[in-house]
Amino acid sequence: SSRVLWTLAVTQFELMNKFGANAWRASNTQLEQTIASMKKSIEQARVGIDDINKERKLSQLQASETLRNLQSLYDDMIFRNFEIDKECATLEMQIKKLKDEAQKKGLMPSEDEMQTSS
Questions:
Q1: 9: pLDDT confidence band, cut at 50, 70 and 90?
Q2: Torsion angles phi and psi, residue 108, rounded to 5
């Protein structure tokens, strides 16, 4: 009876080793598939990140060009406004000079005369 028990235990151990090894192999295969799937997902994420970074860089380059153009336009307008202000000041001085000459010649009443007559 103890021999039968011994034989049964050895048989069970052999069966456990046999099926346990297969289970271990199956588990390893499953883990390898999981690792491969994760590596594929990581690579897809990296490609997606690279695509996003390329789009962002392109967008920044386009925005930079737009900003340069707008800054140049702004600078040109500031310069034009300065030139217009300068011309206005010159014209105002010429108008004052002409008014003064006209008043001296009696062709135009002085500003004091214009205010008292109103």
A1: confident
A2: -145, 135
